[in-house]
Amino acid sequence: MNGLASVLLLLSLPGARFTPPPAKPPVESRVAHTPHKGGQWYFAQTGHAVYCYGPVMFVTSPTGDLQRVATFCQNDQAMVPLKE
To the nearest 5 percent, what fractions of the chain are helix, strand and coil? Predict the structure, then answer.
């Protein structure tokens, strides 16, 4: 009984109440944008823009014509045919 009375007395004191920890400031959810290094944007034959790191080359197409391609592009594409 004596212990119960002391616990109630401690909880009734103004400074003894449980206070939640202060709220943390919101974390910035944006990812830092890193600039591209050593590459260039090209206009692909499909109509999309592609970013490639390698040189532009001419390769022979299956029909025997020369085709201009950009090499070592994003999304693991080795060669992307370019629009003329």
Answer: 15, 35, 50
Decide: 52 and 73 in contact? Cβ < 8 Å. Answer: yes
Domain carrying residue 77: 36-84
* pTM for the model: 0.53
Element of type H or E holding 10: helix 2-12
Residue 29 has pLDDT above 60, yes or no: no
The number of distinct structural domains making up the chain is 1
What is the C-alpha to C-alpha distance for residues 9 and 5, in angstroms, rounded to an integer? Answer: 6
Q: Is position 76 within any domain?
A: yes
What three-state secondary structure class fits 58?
strand
